């Protein structure tokens, strides 16, 4: 039976649905549904259409752009990640003559506009003169947007400062009218401004620099969530950059956008893949849908990467939580939206706390020193809207001051507490 095109299948489904409504329904309701479905069938409203995803059994081993180590599945067997770690150390030993200096790993969490904290922290770290070169940098969501700058070092601090202090909300997203967005779109906001920002900053020069560092034995890893498979994905940006593939830069930009695409609020990113001469599309969203921050899965024991013939190597994991660990009290009214949004916020908060505790326990098991930075109770600037420029500037300066004052890091996750409820109108 010939395969029908997605639009043809959609229209066929609409006709079947309309047929089922012809009996037993009020005429006014039938006319309204008929109008809505006809509008959805128009070419201008076909944003929900996509190519099929690859079958799950194919997707797992599918080499994106033909690059076998372009990505990893952290919830699966750790073999591929282990091989990548071994190759990273082999490149380091070849460059350093076999004697390796202390290792530093940086894990950057999500947090939306709270990413200004991590950006300020890094610039303050540079000013303090103690910022190391990181062997591995990982990022999710807002952390993914920080990660390439953090990976490439202090020369990129001016761009990092610009991204998190000079932009206004329209430079990041365009909010749609809610009723129309719910009926005719796949998200409440249009992120084309954010993608244009990514295009300006994540350019060919940046990709070449990431490729050079990858060849030196350093890793830049960005997390997304494959929504078709409901699985986290870790993208090996250095391997993608070093591949020389003509579509590597586009894929890099798509990964950054996908990692920051909050489901429902921002549109998902469709990544084109090919298998046996056929084109498919994978749907990727915010890495925070699977985890708020990551380093490496507990199934991969970092002790196994150490050379037993060499002296023990000091290794430190630096975790930046672009958010608070405490929670704010509130008088929650009995409204559907209020209860749902408060519950989701609670779920995401403690998901992030759990991720930090997992990294801490894994570091203890594997003999890594642990350091954590987060937004403390002392920061009280008002956020009037998402990506409020004044709020982000204040948070950026707060992160830098904490670093310069030597107050940024704690050596273990602290207990969470509850803050007083903010005044009415303050978020």
TrEMBL record:
Keywords of this protein's UniProt record, alphabetized?
Hydrolase, Lipid degradation, Lipid metabolism
For this chain the motif GXGXXG maps to 110-115
* Domain PNPLA intervals: 106-302
InterPro entries assigned? Acyl_Trfase/lysoPLipase, PNPLA_dom
Q: Where is the active site?
A: 141 (nucleophile), 286 (proton acceptor)
Protein's GO biological process: lipid catabolic process
Report the residue ranges where the short sequence motif GXSXG is annotated in this entry: 139-143
Q: What is this protein called?
A: Patatin family protein
Organism, as annotated: Roseicella aquatilis
């Amino acid at each position: 039976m010939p395969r029908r095109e997605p639009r043809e299948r959609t229209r066929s489904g609409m006709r079947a649905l309309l047929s089922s409504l012809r009996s037993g329904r009020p005429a006014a309701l039938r006319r309204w549904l008929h109008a809505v479905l006809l509008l959805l069938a128009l070419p201008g409203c076909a944003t929900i259409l996509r190519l099929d995803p690859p079958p799950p059994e194919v997707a797992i081993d599918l080499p994106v752009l033909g690059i076998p180590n372009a990505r990893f599945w952290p919830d699966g067997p750790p073999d591929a990640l282990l091989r990548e770690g071994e190759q990273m150390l082999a490149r380091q030993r070849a460059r350093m003559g076999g004697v390796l200096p202390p290792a530093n790993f940086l894990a950057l969490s999500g947090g939306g506009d709270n990413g200004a904290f991590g950006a300020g922290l890094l610039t303050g770290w540079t000013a303090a003169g103690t910022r190391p070169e990181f062997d591995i940098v990982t990022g999710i969501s807002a952390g993914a947007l920080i990660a390439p700058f953090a990976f490439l070092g202090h020369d990129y601090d001016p761009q990092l400062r610009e991204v998190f202090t000079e932009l206004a909300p329209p430079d990041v997203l365009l909010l749609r009218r809610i009723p129309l967005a719910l009926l005719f779109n796949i998200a409440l906001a249009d992120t084309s401004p954010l993608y244009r920002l990514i295009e300006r900053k994540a350019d060919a020069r940046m990709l070449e620099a990431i490729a050079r560092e990858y060849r030196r034995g350093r890793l830049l890893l960005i997390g997304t969530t494959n929504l078709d498979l409901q699985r986290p994905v870790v993208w090996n940006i250095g391997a993608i950059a070093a591949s020389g593939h003509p579509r590597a830069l586009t894929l890099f930009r798509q990964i950054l956008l996908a990692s920051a695409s909050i489901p429902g609020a921002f549109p998902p990113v469709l990544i084109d893949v090919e298998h046996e001469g056929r084109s498919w599309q994978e749907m990727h969203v915010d890495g925070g849908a699977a985890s708020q921050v990551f380093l490496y899965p507990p199934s991969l024991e970092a002790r196994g990467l150490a050379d037993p013939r060499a002296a023990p190597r000091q290794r430190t994991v630096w975790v930046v939580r672009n958010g608070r660990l405490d929670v704010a009290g509130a008088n929650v009214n009995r409204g559907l939206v209020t209860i749902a949004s408060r519950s989701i916020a609670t779920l995401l908060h403690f998901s992030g706390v759990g991720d930090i505790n997992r990294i801490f326990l894994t570091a203890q098991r594997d003999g890594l020193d642990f350091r954590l930075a987060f937004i403390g109770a002392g920061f009280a600037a008002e956020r009037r809207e998402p990506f409020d420029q004044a709020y982000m500037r204040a948070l950026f300066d707060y992160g830098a001051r904490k670093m310069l004052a030597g107050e940024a890091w704690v050596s273990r996750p602290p207990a969470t507490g509850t803050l007083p409820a903010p005044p009415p109108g303050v978020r």
